[in-house]
Amino acid sequence: MAGEIAIVSNIATNMQQAASLAGSSAVQLATINLREQWESEAGMVAQSVLQRRQQDMGALAQAAVNAGRLARETTGALLALQQAGKL
Q: How far apart are CA 79 and CA 72, in angstroms?
């Protein structure tokens, strides 16, 4: 009888250890899933920021083109005024 009690006690101890290990594994898996979710969300935010930066750079490039055009037009007008003796 004492031997059977020892076996049952060992089984109960093993079951407790298995439950503890399963709980620990579940926590680790949840942490991994949460980390992946955060990384995914961070990736989406980074993509959104990148798209806004690209739009900003496009607008800056257009502004530079417009400034260049205005400079050429202004230079042409100034040369014409100079040739006409107005400057």
A: 10
Long-range contacts of 59-67 (CB under 8 A, 24+ apart): none
The tokens for 18 are: 């298995």
Q: Give per-residue pLDDT as tens, 10-67.
A: 888 888 888 888 888 888 888 898 999 999 999 999 999 999 999 999 999 999 999 9
The one-letter amino acid at 37: Q
Evaluate whether 64 touches 70 at the Cβ level (below 8 Å). no
Residue 4: CB partners within 8 Å, gap ≥ 6? none
Token pair for 12: 């109960």
